[in-house]
């Protein structure tokens, strides 16, 4: 029976991922209905914590966007990328990583992709190289950023005071090493641009050839002027990150309020870190609005804010369905996999990777699969080491950042292959994640 139920779960995820948008969430609810009405399963607890975290963090990021803070950060990143164009294959991925690490969202990469593609092409560097690794870097940044919903979700699941700091000190250096190795692997990938037949054919068009002229700067210097409150908004956002890090690093700073254990209060009477993250981020959002005079209406119209509805519906549907399936079959799953995972804990990374590829959501994957890892007895350091595996959303080339990179590369070097899976992002993605996980395990031996 479990295989029939698993088939239904995977079918709902596959159909939902093809529908795009909120499709994953609504199909998740269809699966939940089937589990409850047909298989008489008891519905699991809805993922209230991760939903509230997504709401708070994305609202804060949207406020930063409305105040002009994201544009200001992008302008800094653009200057760094353009300063040494001949080294763009190395510079672009790390610039992207740290920008997304600070912002807590990979969606900011959309602003950098056309810049990376243009600079690379004019230097006659195959754009596929910096673009592919930059996209993977933007995904890896989420599994280490204290402002990402995925990281906050893992903090809530691990539920110990220094979880956020441990995630950062393992995942950030591990991801940096993974990105570096990935760059080395792709730095000579494909034929050189000036020998690429597709590019040479495009160069026969005079207008296209003119746009590829290295001396043409019409696409670069747009004389960006920061919005009046942009720098202040970035400062407030940075202060919020610092506060989250401080409370995670120094548990004795967390307020002790007493009372019974609840969503907001730990068993020892201190405020839960999940609650603190929500309070800090939304307070930062309020301060940005008040100090920079950013309209709350404007915040609600930002692309990041509107994307929150999709994220909330998707996480609610797929996580609630998956949690119900896991709870109903916990004994069977534990009996089947506990010995394997106990002997080879790294094998759990495959489950994280495949679910990430199916859901296209690092937060949903974290909330769905990580509790299983806890139930199977995998120790916290090993779960943290495997955290980058939730970034398997590049496996199927349908994730928006991958599609955008392909579209922005006018030379045609970044593409989906004939067999779909042999696309431009497969090699750098597999290398970066594999190395990050291996380094993560090595670091756990040092820090724990």
TrEMBL record:
Ribonucleoprotein in keyword set: no
Topology of this chain in the membrane: Multi-pass membrane protein
Keyword annotations: Cell inner membrane, Cell membrane, Membrane, Transmembrane, Transmembrane helix, Transport
Ranges that cross the membrane: 6-39, 48-68, 88-113, 133-161, 167-186, 232-250, 270-292, 304-326, 346-365, 372-390, 425-447
Location within or outside the cell: Cell inner membrane
UniProt-listed InterPro entries: Anaer_Dcu_memb_transpt
Family: Belongs to the DcuA/DcuB transporter (TC 2.A.13.1) family.
Protein name, entry field: Anaerobic C4-dicarboxylate transporter
Natural source organism: Pedobacter gandavensis
